[in-house]
Inverse folding.
């Protein structure tokens, strides 16, 4: 009964008072992709739906500008 309790995940952007997810901040965006380069889903990141959409757009822009890789080199 009490073993099913899970702590609610907190939106990292809301917690740090970040309104605009900038595609140039590689260190922040790397927190939300896995080691293979895939974008982590909302249920894992804990972001709100609005911030997850902003995050996805920023990661895709950073990939196009070669700030982030499309896939990991070690994955092959």
């Amino acid at each position: 009964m009490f073993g099913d309790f899970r702590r609610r995940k907190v939106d990292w952007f809301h917690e740090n008072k970040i309104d605009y997810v900038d595609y140039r901040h590689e260190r922040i965006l790397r927190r939300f992709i896995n080691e293979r380069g895939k974008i982590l889903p909302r249920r894992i990141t804990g972001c709100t739906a609005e911030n997850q959409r902003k995050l996805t757009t920023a990661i895709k822009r950073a990939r196009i500008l070669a700030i982030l890789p499309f896939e990991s080199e070690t994955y092959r």
